Amino acid sequence: MNREIKTPLTKEMAKELRAGDYVTITGTIYTARDAAHKRMIEALDAGEKLPIEIDGNILYYMGPSPAREGRPIGSAGPTTASRMDKYAPRLLDLGLIGMIAKGKRNEAVKEAIMRNGAVYFAAVGGAGALLSQRIKKAEVVAYDDLGAEAIRRLEVENFPVIVVMDSEGNNLYETAVKEYCSEE
Fold first, then answer.
1. Which end of the chain, C or N, has fewer beta carbons within 10 A?
2. In total, how many domains does the chain have?
3. By residue range, what is the domain housing residue 46?
């Protein structure tokens, strides 16, 4: 099914999404990769407040290339999600409602997605230049010293993703393989 959503993404909206749905996102999302995730968890461990509001937001696992003249951002393709798996359950428990990346997630992330009514989206790897055209504004909001891995606030318009794991734990990577292998 094709869906259009506007951020912030609510739990009610997330629970309506199903693995395999094609979705376009319009509104604000945030970027964070390995180094930013590590810093956020260190901040939480130290009793500090996170530099962005996690509750109800979507994190895009991405570190852009430098922007060309006249563009808000360079190539903006997804990072492999499993690199954030050790951090994701804690952020989901704090209210993170969505994640965008590429690749499989571990069982702990799946359980946290289901426990929190969240969703995992995939963006097409290798399509960073095309995806960047859907980003209308990009601004570093935390950890500027991390360069490409700094946390950015992105304003996106019709940003294309696919629901890979829904709030019920349905996983497109598993169901698609079973469906494909069952067809002769």
1. C
2. 1
3. 2-182
